[in-house]
Amino acid sequence: MFGYTLRRIIYTLPVLLGVSVVCFALVHISPGDPLISILPADASIELQERMLVLYGFDRSYPEQFILWLGRALQGDLGTSIATGRPVTTEVMRAVANTLMLASVATVIGFVLGCFFGFVAGYFSNSPMDKAASAAAVFGVSVPHYWLGMVLVIIFSAQLGWLPASGAGPGGSSQWKFDMEHLSYMVLPAITMSVIPMGIIARTVRALVAEILAQEFVIGLRARGLSEFGVFVHVVKNAAPTALAVMGVQLGYLLGGSILIETVFSWPGTGMLLNSAIFQRDLPLLQGTILVLALFFVVLNLIVDVMQSALDPRIKR
Amino acid sequence: MADIAIATPPVEPVRSAGYWQNVGKRLIRDKTAMAAAAVLALITLAAIFAPIVAPMDPLQGRLINRLQPIGSEGHILGTDELGRDMLSRLIWGGRLSLLMGVTPVVLAFFIGSAIGIIAGYAGGWTNTLIMRTVDIFYAFPSVLLAVALSGALGAGLGNALLSLTVVFIPPIARVAESVTTRLRSSDFIEAARASGAGALTIVRVHVLGNVLGPIFVYATSLIAVSMILASGLSFLGLGVRPPNPEWGLMLNTLRTAIYAQPWVAALPGAMIFLVSISFNLLSDGLRSAMEVRQ
Question: ipTM of this model?
């Protein structure tokens, strides 16, 4: 167990390094001088050169990368060109909002996905299986930004039950756990939960059908175990994989929240990315992408380690 | 006089291409897959023949006619925020949306297969080097990588296509690599190698025919994701630019109309959904017809 964890961590290090190289490169593949967006168009050559040196753009790429990485490791991701605030502060505040939304969505998706998956797997090829499988296909096929719009049309524009956008009354981004704030989360969380719902339902359906076909299940039934007892065994066997898929999905939602956050004006990393892109705020873009990608890699690492701890059959 | 020893009738060598014929037969019997294929064919044909099929000019509108409801006279599906005919725009929009959704997967299929087959067949250090590089790109959530690349490169059709292609190369390369690696140690490859066939010949004659099928099925399952992502980039303003009709972009510009004409505003997204679910169902059908186990 310890050996596996250590090996998995060591294996992750080059990936982390590679991910940071890609994030570093983002600024340099973008067309135009990154200084254009911080300096007025008529800035003197002298000022331009001073800023060039100040931001370190005059050095070679490897030098710039090492300097950038060194600062990033100390938690300094540079300064946002648009707001002048440290990128780290901006990203961390946004990450908290996105993480909260994505976690709620993952839990909803997991519960619904498991339900549909179990029903479909248990009653294979019955009408119930067909319905549950249809829900799964819906989940992986629907453009979630459109689903968000449709939900807003129904529940905000037509019925007026729930707020259409934002994370709190009066556009506040300070989250509190009360009914009013929660009502702002309902629509984006449901919209977001559709993707993990579909994927988890598909996975669980396949898992359950596979487990039920195994000989030990026949053995359990032959020994007179109640249907509920058999069910417990199926759950135990399906849990590690289902939980692993859930963990990975949380990572995907964190990284892929930009479309949903744009629809609902949710003040998370997606909104941050959106404004970074359109204000050509490259340090902010780079910092946000780096933090989200690192989250994803580390989450995958944790999921792998947890899965092998939960399921001793997985020999690595 | 050896040829009279056995009376060999001059049989045509029975083409063992029966496999693909069987796949085709099974697929045709799959009602869901065929319905999906029909929907896709209809939308594609409408898009190709848009100049003939579309009742009106997709770019010309009259502001006085803006946001007409579905079913209004002369505009069966209503009009958009600039008074342009929705039906015509949806038909024309299919061109860019389908192009943007399908092209990245097609490109990634060729590039990713090539990378994966080379890595899988070469093995050793070449494999490690290629696959660890692929892992780095695979370590990004797909939406994030697409947004990061097209955000950094700047808005535009070409950049969006490039970003999406980069997103889909790693998963395809991984599948190609694992299928090729499994095949590499099989007996008939060993036999070919032992009989002196060069690497290129083996790959061309023995490997490609066996690995392209599974990779192809996997790639078709990515088209639905690609459609959603491509229109998503345009929805964010990173893909197609106005006034060109594209479903994702139309959905974005119509967001302001969700109070005035909600169902007109939702139409472009319904098209994305229809196409993406059809691709998913067709790909599922193809997979079970080929009995490819993932």
Answer: 0.84
